[in-house]
């Protein structure tokens, strides 16, 4: 087993680093859209409103970036690692959705502290579940192609639903009672101009 130091295996080091990285970058992304005067390119990666769906970006994109760096820098065996990380990420995203609706449904409202707690726990789930799933899957071939497809599909859905969200509860901004960022006719053409 490779070690960063005498008492810290490389895999554990990357797990700890990944959790810190995701927490810091996710927090930064929460404010980035507003800090950049609502720039449409930033909207692809940063929440554009207070909907649950948009806040899933805070977990998804930092984990996606860190996982890519792990595969390149640490030279992990992509076949087993990528599938395990993808499944763990889906579990983290699912926890945010389920946790929010359960606690807000019971209490009748939502609280910022509780939402932050969900985010932190989802990070722990994603990074602590990865090595467990990786060990469990040694008995069967891990579908790396499917993992890549899932990550690409989720990325495409985050991009698409930023501008064209379905009009269901998962996508509504509870404060503005609105969806996405396209709130006026002609906005799509303006966004394309700004993007390209």
TrEMBL record:
Any single Pfam family the record assigns to this protein: DUF6512
Domain of life according to the entry: Bacteria
Transmembrane segments: 12-35, 55-74, 86-104, 116-133, 145-164
Keyword list, A-Z: Membrane, Transmembrane, Transmembrane helix
The name this protein goes by in its record: Uncharacterized protein
Taxonomic classification: Bacteria, Bacillati, Bacillota, Clostridia, Lachnospirales
């Amino acid at each position: 087993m490779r070690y960063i130091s005498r008492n810290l295996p490389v895999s554990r080091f990357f797990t700890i680093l990944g959790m810190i990285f995701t927490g810091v970058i996710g927090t930064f992304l929460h404010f980035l859209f507003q800090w950049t005067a609502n720039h449409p390119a930033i909207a692809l990666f940063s929440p554009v409103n207070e909907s649950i769906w948009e806040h899933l970006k805070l977990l998804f994109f930092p984990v996606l970036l860190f996982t890519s760096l792990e595969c390149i820098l640490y030279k992990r065996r992509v076949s087993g690692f990528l599938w395990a990380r993808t499944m763990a990420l889906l579990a983290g995203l699912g926890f945010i959705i389920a946790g929010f609706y359960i606690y807000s449904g019971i209490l009748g409202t939502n609280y910022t502290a509780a939402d932050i707690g969900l985010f932190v726990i989802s990070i722990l789930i994603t990074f602590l579940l990865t090595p467990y799933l990786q060990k469990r899957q040694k008995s069967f071939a891990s579908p790396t192609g499917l993992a890549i497809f899932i990550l690409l599909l989720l990325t495409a859905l985050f991009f698409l639903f930023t501008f064209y969200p379905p009009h269901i509860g998962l996508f509504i901004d509870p404060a503005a009672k609105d969806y996405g960022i396209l709130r006026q006719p002609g906005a799509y053409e303006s966004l394309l101009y700004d993007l390209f």
